[in-house]
Design a protein that fits this description.
By secondary structure, this protein is mostly helical. The chain has two domains: 82 residues, Winged helix-like DNA-binding domain superfamily/Winged helix DNA-binding domain (Arc Repressor Mutant, subunit A), CATH 1.10.10; 91 residues. It has seven helices and three strands; from the N terminus they run H-E-H-H-E-E-H-H-H-H. A three-stranded antiparallel β-sheet has the order 1-3-2. Pfam families: PadR, Vir_act_alpha_C. This is PadR family transcriptional regulator.
């Protein structure tokens, strides 16, 4: 997937400025497709030049004018074409998994600390996803009759929640295994 497609999806969900788009990437889409603010602005400019997005200037008090972006018909057509293209299932490439295998030849204690840190990151991400689910999809402010966009956003979020739960279960198994090995090999 190209960053262009993630930007098109986000702008179709809600048009906005480059800054607003970058913040959305920081809060939601960025968990599934990452991009720096500079990349987003650079790609927005290219998409505007290619006619995929249209921009208009919005005057601001005491600040420079900002550009507000919306998807143009050519962008909608590009996204539609991309949605019809087949994609290959992703291969797992996991640095931590290689470190775990390498721990048989190194310092188990150092790896134990790294896995604990890694687990904290995933635990925090799971808490963030669950809070977002409560706020946007299952809490009192959630739409009673969600539209297709909300249902599809929710199913992606549920996938993220399931992934984090699976990762945490695996990390708990890794930690238990490392501790068992450390106890068995302690002098």
């Amino acid at each position: 997937m190209a960053l262009e497609h993630a930007i098109l999806v986000s702008l179709l969900e809600k048009p906005g400025s480059g800054y607003e788009l970058a913040r959305r990437f920081d809060r939601s889409i960025g968990y599934f497709w990452t991009a720096t603010h500079q990349q987003i602005y650079r790609v927005l400019k290219r998409m505007e030049n290619d006619g995929w997005v249209a921009a208009h200037e919005v005057a601001q008090q005491g600040r420079p004018d900002k550009k507000h972006y919306a998807v143009a018909p050519a962008g909608r057509a590009a996204l539609s074409a991309w949605l019809h293209e087949p994609i290959e299932p992703e291969s797992v490439r996991h640095d931590l998994a290689v470190k775990i295998r390498g721990a048989a030849f190194g310092d188990l204690s150092a790896l134990l600390h790294e896995v604990e840190r890694y687990r904290q990151v995933h635990s925090g991400r799971l808490a963030h996803y669950r809070a977002g689910e409560e706020r946007d999809f299952t809490g009192p402010d959630a739409p009673a009759e969600p539209d297709a966009m909300h249902e599809l956003q929710h199913v992606v979020l549920r996938g993220g929640i399931a992934y984090e739960q699976m990762t945490l279960a695996w990390l708990d198994d890794v930690l238990a295994t490392l501790r068992r090995i450390r106890e068995r090999t302690a002098p």
